[in-house]
């Protein structure tokens, strides 16, 4: 566990990345470190610095350079000391378990055993670098749900072009409004993220498509990004509250149809919709979230293993783009005289280093529940349209585990499929996206204007490399003239649409067309257990092995950083990607294979799991399980994988389902292995759907994490260079197996897909892997 522990005041503690990045040596040498936490008996005067409390944070400005500011709670207990930056600024957002004074701004992490975010309540701040101490008046830090009165939102005016929207704490977010031709009012959608949605020189994809269909669009940058004020933080409650404020301010504008707005966007702006909708803005009509995550922590630590690939790079990019001068369009606005944007740049010096932020936390803190969408989506009370790909190279497929948690959403439309991250904007899905927006934002029967159809379809076709070969669907509700009747017919349809073998449904292989599809009333669909047991001959059998045995493989220190493509994230829109997926060398993993299947087997659900009896020569081990489909002609397609750190023992029984193993990943549930001792380890596969056709064979590969992902890389133990072996048992007493949700009633049409064809599912000639016996 490199860098997991640090010493503070003579004791070992685990680093907490949700806290400010600060330098530890300063913390150990500054006044106030380690005192009794009570306010000092010193003369005081009223403070002249500016206190700006917000949602779970407070900003201090005009305090003077390198002043020592101390935050006190209502009981006059010292919580945290921050030394202001050169501009006299400090931001209190996270509180350690023990008082400490540190430098504010970029740098390092407050070391703590169990930090927390700054909660709703009354506080004061003292400048203790002077005598008498300058003390602020008591101020109130807001909670996420402390909304402003309606008059606050109704009093704002947003004009076409670039401008600002004020939040409840006074922070102004940059926004760009684009109106369609005509007098209005217009159906209106918002795209909200930390990229460049408010950039007046460019437009995000969701807004661009919505504009072509006649919608007004508002692109808004999150606080601390673009020209927006405030300090940037990843998916924190302040961002969620800002989403509420944006919805309400925009919806009150006179050009908004019905004074209700929708939201659009894929990835970052898809994720932000879920956070925003969980705050229940009364003027939100519906959301359309594409290619999203389930939890930021599990995105950084899938299965408890650090994602040193895409997630690490994404966080580093957020650091760079939210830093002062991080975006060229922002600098151009400042150069053109945008005084507000220029003022906001100064506070960027307080932004957190999020690459380090993500790496520092090895176990899941309870406060992270405030950012876990799997819990927050239970509060969403508007219609939801959501899509996702099983092999999403950026965000993965854990989004599916929360689809059963939209308890209050009155209408749900989920489309899931094999494929890539950008596929939510594929022509065959954009059709249904438009349909949903028409019903719930525009409030009209979906009819795609022929001119818009003629304009949008080739643009999307060009973006996905398919030209005009993948047309939009025809309008589906032309038989209706009454909106309520059409909507009732739409809402009578099943909630879940599963697209199978996308990429082999058109003459152009790799295009975003499914060979067949199946709808289900709910996700996960009703299923029975398909169980295969590992045996000593390298087989996956229907029954427990009668002979039994133990196989072993060697830890592969070079596997973690290996990904199978050199392509960039934008390359995944194309019908095919370049990749190199060589077979695993003997000794570095284990392989188990079914006999040719006598009939079709369709797996669909929240993943399933490998139930392994596992032992290691070390006290820590990362495991990857990979499921493949071996066709009769010897072609092998990747289906899905899962990674897991075996020291995480505590299953979350409240969130687990029959085929879904959820772990708490808490510090209390983390226990290192006893070397050489077998224990039962359940390694979850990420959610997926896939048809194994009659004659094919299902294959399980067990190895060190790495090699089987396009962009996710993993940080595995180094064992100080020692050669370490792991073992897997398959005996009557220790019957290792894999368990998947098998669904009935799916009509598997067409023949075996050729290699390559399936989106997100690369392929290669099958090569046997010879298992090494440990007996």
Protein architecture, described:
This protein has 775 residues and is α+β, with helices and mostly antiparallel strands. 16% of the residues lie in helices and 27% in strands. It contains 14 helices and 39 strands. The strands form eight sheets. A ten-stranded mixed sheet has the order 15-16-18-17-19-20-21-22-23-24, with helices on both faces. Strands 25, 26, 27, 30, 33, 36, 37 and 39 form an eight-stranded antiparallel sheet that branches. The relative contact order is 0.10. The model is unreliable at 1-36 (pLDDT under 50).
Keywords:
775 residues; alpha+beta; 10-stranded mixed beta sheet; 14 helices; 39 strands; 27% strand; globular
Give a nutshell description of this structure.
The chain is built from 14 helices and 39 strands. With 775 residues, it is of the alpha+beta class.
